[in-house]
Design goal:
3-methyladenine DNA Glycosylase II, Chain A, domain 3; Alpha-Beta Plaits; two-stranded antiparallel ribbon; 11 helices
Length: 297
């Protein structure tokens, strides 16, 4: 019995000693945590979506505190929280229009298929099988990797089989862009409504052969734009959103319906009639001026 009691006492003393050592060590080696980090974390979205490029919201907060990430690194948190984080960091609140994701493809069922894919329902997996089932190497595969990546319900597969974004739900975290193996998703200003829904860089005939909605780089949109806001770059039209005023003239002259919103046949015919009338008026004015000049001589 005495041995048992002695063993209990020894174990108790050792436990107390080790506990004291651990307590002292925890104080000596304690990592001081900046209280601002918790304050920043409280203003982040908390979705751990990874759209900021850091491992979760805690990683994002640490990066902002270290100066490795901007105060608005967490797009889903919104402008108000970005301003609050800026105040915590002693910086000016960021300015600028809210961005949303946009899918640069309107192909879907209009894009030709090389074969029917029956594997894992995932875009990246589909690209591993003979580079994907589409003839178009730039088209949306429509298997929803972006939809699965979105934590806010802003992505879906549209009725034509290509991915679409709900701008009212989109937080511009761009997790969808990171999930797209064909890099079709970009961010655009939320107020802008005219977008080139194609990323195909093939030459005109080659682009036409793989998708009914492919941009063929014809340049009609570039020629028609009065604000110099759209240009053909690497075979595909690109909009300069700082110049675009949303007049939609480019949508009315696009022969491939590659620019959204797609103009109706009636709108296109009406615009052609207006252009024809303007041309006839200009020709008549030129003729009258020439006749007047001839008479003066």
């Amino acid at each position: 019995m005495g041995n048992i009691i002695a063993a209990i006492v020894v174990l108790g003393v050792l436990g107390a000693v080790f506990g004291l050592v651990l307590a002292v060590a925890s104080k000596i080696f304690e990592v001081k945590k900046d209280p601002r980090e918790e304050a920043i974390l409280s203003h982040l979205a908390g979705a751990n979506c990874g759209g900021c490029g850091y491992p979760g919201c805690a990683g994002c907060a640490a990066a902002i505190l270290a100066g490795d990430a901007p105060v608005n690194a967490c797009a889903p948190a919104g402008a108000e929280n970005a301003a609050a984080i800026a105040e915590i960091m002693g910086q000016a609140a960021p300015t600028g229009e809210r961005q949303v994701a946009f899918v640069r493809c309107n192909g879907g069922v209009n894009a030709k298929k090389r074969f029917d894919y029956v594997g894992v329902h995932d875009c990246l997996s589909a690209t591993k099988v003979a580079a994907g089932p589409l003839e178009c190497n730039f088209g949306c595969l429509g298997f929803g990797s972006c939809v699965a990546a979105c934590q806010f319900g802003a992505m879906s597969i549209g009725p034509n089989g290509a991915a679409v974004v709900d701008p009212d739900k989109c937080t511009a975290c761009m997790a969808c862009a990171n999930a797209c193996p064909r890099h079709l998703i970009t961010s655009v200003p939320v107020s802008k409504k005219v977008h080139v829904a194609c990323a195909n860089q093939d030459k005109g005939k080659a682009a036409m052969s793989v998708c009914a909605n492919a941009c063929i780089g014809c340049g009609l949109c570039q020629k028609e734009c009065k604000k110099d806001a759209i240009h053909v770059v690497n075979g595909v039209a690109v909009i300069d959103y700082e110049k675009c005023v949303g007049c939609k003239l480019c949508t009315k002259v696009c022969p491939r319906d590659a620019i959204l919103p797609v103009a109706t046949a009636e709108e296109k015919e009406k615009y052609k009639a207006i252009k024809k009338a303007q041309a006839e008026k200009a020709a008549a004015a030129k003729k009258a001026a020439e006749e007047a000049a001839a008479s003066a001589q």
